[in-house]
Amino acid sequence: MNPPRTLFRTRIKFCGFTRPGDVRLACELGADAIGFVFASGSSRRVAAEEARAMRQALAPLVDAVALFSDNPVDEVREVVRQVRPSLLQFHGNEDDAFCRGFGVPYLKAIPMGGELADQHPSALHMRYPGAAGFLFDSHARGGSGGSGKTFDWKRIPVGVQKPFVLAGGITPDNVFEAIQATLPWGVDVSSGIESAPGLKDGDKMRHFVEEVRRADCHVD
Ligand SMILES: O=C(O)c1ccccc1NCC(=O)[C@H](O)[C@H](O)COP(=O)(O)O
């Protein structure tokens, strides 16, 4: 049985937006953060100008997160300049110095598929001392996120001292169980709230938020 987390509210990040209308709806439904993907090769990739327009659709008190995977430094700088994200998220082999170099807090995505390396909490903290938190995602090292696949949640390292976000294959149907099993700071979803890559589905977003709230109120 997990210890109760009195009055705890699991943060919700919806990722991979391509349409301002979806951003507006996600904010109304209760998302805490909205993610824009700039990783090359992603079907959800947007240009800085598009993300800037979507950022303007954001409600107050909702974070804009810019997501990268081994993008060149100039690309990251340009996104920061145009979009003004409140948080960066790095999915590639970026080191702490690179991630810190933009003057914006960052989350480091940790690949939980395939061979696990460096996932011991002390190794993570030593490798990314500047990280605001970690995001555990299902891809293997060198792979992409946004796969819609889960990983074995038992692989999450015990004793991580920074907030962590659970990602990878979370849906309205498994987010309750995912929160109960892992007690994350937040959950991150892309495929599970879509009708097609990059196109968000209002009913799925609403159901997802309802299930997170249900998990937060649940007492064993
Ligand atoms: O979404 C992408 O296409 C993507 C490409 C490269 C790196 C990361 C990417 N997405 C990350 C996310 O959307 C989420 O952080 C996470 O991977 C959850 O995705 P999903 O399994 O689809 O819910």
From TrEMBL:
Pfam families xrefs: PRAI
Top EC class, one word: isomerase
Keywords: Amino-acid biosynthesis, Aromatic amino acid biosynthesis, Isomerase, Tryptophan biosynthesis
InterPro entries on file: Aldolase_TIM, PRAI_dom, RibuloseP-bd_barrel, TrpF_fam
Catalytic activity from the UniProt record: N-(5-phospho-beta-D-ribosyl)anthranilate = 1-(2-carboxyphenylamino)-1-deoxy-D-ribulose 5-phosphate
Pathway: Amino-acid biosynthesis; L-tryptophan biosynthesis; L-tryptophan from chorismate: step 3/5
EC number: 5.3.1.24
CDD domains assigned: PRAI
GO MF, one example: phosphoribosylanthranilate isomerase activity
Domain N-(5'phosphoribosyl) anthranilate isomerase (PRAI): 13-210
Source taxon at top rank: Bacteria
NCBIfam families: PRK01222.1-2, PRK01222.1-4
Entry's family note: Belongs to the TrpF family.
Name assigned to this protein: N-(5'-phosphoribosyl)anthranilate isomerase
Organism this protein belongs to: Lysobacter gummosus
Lineage, uppermost ranks: Bacteria, Pseudomonadati, Pseudomonadota, Gammaproteobacteria, Lysobacterales
Gene name linked to the record: trpF
